[in-house]
């Protein structure tokens, strides 16, 4: 295993601080209005430091989002190691969507993670390689515990999820216009897992 020296540790710490500050600022700032000078001031570093580590504001935003996505997927992997029930999985999914909206607004998610084709491609790649295999396992385990109807194949679940991924931008735009976004998210998540007629007895 390659050892990380003191300089590399400090550099990694500074990079993470800058990215964390960037994500915090996005709670109240529009991405287009953010300047390197504003981020540097909030992070307590020089503008030169940010340019040295990231090169540009666009690259900083890109790396910050990728780091955010990677942390979310790492958290999902850790959760799935506990072999949750389908009910626990539904609750986890709702909680994660709510947490996401506390970090980024629906319009920001759409602009920065859906409309940006490069970022959306990165998300899809991580989703297909890491998330989908875990969900396939969940489906099979759910069937063995009589939590999922035996009528539903894993392949059908994956096709349905792919359709959901392709329409996520439109769903986020609709969510933005709702009076109560939390309720809307819960309803959409319920529909996703249980359909219009609810869960079968």
Structure description:
With 201 residues, this protein is mostly helical. The protein has helices at residues 6-25, 36-43, 47-54, 57-80, 86-103, 106-114, 117-144, 154-166, 168-176, 181-194. The model has no long low-confidence stretch (mean pLDDT 85). The longest helix is centred in the middle third of the chain and has 28 residues, at 117-144. Helices cover 75% and strands 0% of the residues.
Please give the share of residues in helix: over 70%
Please state the oligomeric state of the protein chains shown: single chain
Shape assignment: globular
Q: What is the CA-based Rg, rounded? A: 19 Å
Distance N to C terminus: 52 Å
Query: Largest beta sheet, briefly?
Result: none
Q: Which parts are unreliable, with pLDDT below 50 for 5 consecutive residues or more? A: none
What is the chain-wise order of helices and strands?
HHHHHHHHHH
Strand content: under 5%
Mean pLDDT: 85
Record keyword descriptors for this entry.
201 residues; globular; single chain; 75% helix
Brief overview:
The protein has 201 residues and is mainly alpha-helical.
Tell me the layout of helices and strands.
Elements: H1 6-25, H2 36-43, H3 47-54, H4 57-80, H5 86-103, H6 106-114, H7 117-144, H8 154-166, H9 168-176, H10 181-194
Helix pairs in contact: 1-2, 1-4, 2-3, 3-4, 4-7, 5-10, 6-9, 7-8
């Amino acid at each position: 295993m390659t050892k990380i020296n003191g300089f590399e540790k400090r550099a990694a710490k500074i990079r993470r601080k800058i990215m964390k500050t960037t994500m915090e600022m996005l709670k109240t700032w529009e991405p287009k209005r953010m300047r390197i000078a504003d981020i540097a001031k909030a992070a307590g570093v020089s503008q030169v430091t940010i340019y040295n580590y990231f090169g540009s504001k666009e690259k900083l935003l890109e790396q910050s989002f990728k780091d955010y996505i990677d942390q979310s997927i790492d958290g999902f992997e850790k959760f799935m190691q506990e072999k949750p029930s389908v009910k626990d999985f539904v609750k986890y999914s709702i909680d994660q969507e709510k947490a996401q909206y506390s970090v980024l607004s629906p319009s920001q998610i759409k602009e920065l993670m859906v409309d940006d084709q490069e970022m959306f491609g990165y998300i899809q790649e991580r989703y297909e390689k890491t998330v989908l295999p875990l969900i396939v396992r969940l489906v099979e385990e759910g069937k063995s515990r009589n939590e999922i109807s035996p009528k539903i194949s894993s392949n059908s679940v994956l096709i349905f999820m792919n359709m959901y991924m392709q329409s996520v931008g439109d769903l986020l735009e609709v969510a933005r216009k709702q009076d109560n976004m939390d309720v809307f998210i819960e309803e959409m998540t319920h529909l996703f897992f249980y359909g219009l007629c609810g869960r079968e007895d």
